[in-house]
Amino acid sequence: MSTLFEPFQAGQLSLANRVVMAPLTRNRAPGALPNALMATYYTQRANPKDGAGLIITEATAISHQGQGYADVPGIWSDEQVAAWKPITAAVHAAGGKIVMQLWHVGRVSHVDLQPGGQAPVAPSAITAKTKTVLIQDGVPRFVDTSAPRALTLEELPGIVADYRRAARNAIAAGFDGVEVHGANGYLLDQFLRSGSNQRTDAYGGPIESRARLLLEVMQAVCDEIGAGRVGLRLSPVTPANDAFDPQPQPLFTHVVQQLAPLKLAYLHFIEGATGGARDHTQGDAPFNYAALRQAYRGAGGQAAWMVNNAYDRALADQALQDGADLVAFGRPFIANPDLTRRLREGADCNTPDRATFYGGGAHGYTDYPLLSNQERSMQI
Length: 380
Description:
Oligomer: single chain
Shape: globular
Number of domains: 1
CATH architecture: Alpha-Beta Barrel
Strand order of the largest sheet: 3-4-5-10-11-12-13-14
Distance between the termini: 40 Å
Structural class: alpha/beta
Largest sheet: 8 strands, parallel, barrel
């Protein structure tokens, strides 16, 4: 039986174990520039003996327009590429593998974060019933998102080009690959769902048209850096950021069937509500993830199947037995840089401090104790 702690090959990514650190927005990159504190944070979790076999970075904006939260990093400029290089070098020196999550938030933004104070962009001019984060007087504050404008048909090739450039920049910055963020109610997910996409052109209406932008982005990114270094994150039924579609099963079945020929490194699924109930569903029936995987495999898809949402050791072992290949852990990695060791040894985990999740400095970011340090403290 497969275990969490054995090596695994996902496309061109040779991983020391099957434990993945999920992307976690932490708002510690002022000016959209990564920094030395972030290098410490990722390197602490990079040792594959105690930490993740694969690290997926916090969501990283592909353009200034794609930014939706204060103090999140970007990957659209040469300065950002240079700033990421010490981070990837440090992770690799520790023996780890790291991919960058590529992000365009679409309508989940605020005019204060957009170039020139412009309105955020979206498939349709429908305001998201959600909040974003601004840093005001040095304090992170949740505020309502701004009303968006609908992207014109002529603008969409530029969005695809921004993803392509971001993927190229990520590789130039030393990353092992990229994960396209197609989940959680952000731009690509907004196009997928009828609740946020009411277009009447070739990118709206039937499922095939709503999936068009996502598939064009995936093809462009794969063409740019090679499909074996590309993953995709999807969240079929999450309500995050006002995401809704009444028929998620046929929608995401079509998506994975169309992705099958690309020979991606992995597909990353949030099961249920992001950060919430695993059994959350949309539409008339519970979502069938096993049927989704069967549809993907039936279409010839070979990408590793990564699962995510509230996993512990027992649930992860069961998921591997049921056909998953990789298991992603989010919040547990915030407070436990050595999460893999704790899972392997059945050790207790540190509890994350929610007050330090978004913004701030080292406290609640790089100062959580390792298991070995805790043991030493107890012996003393």
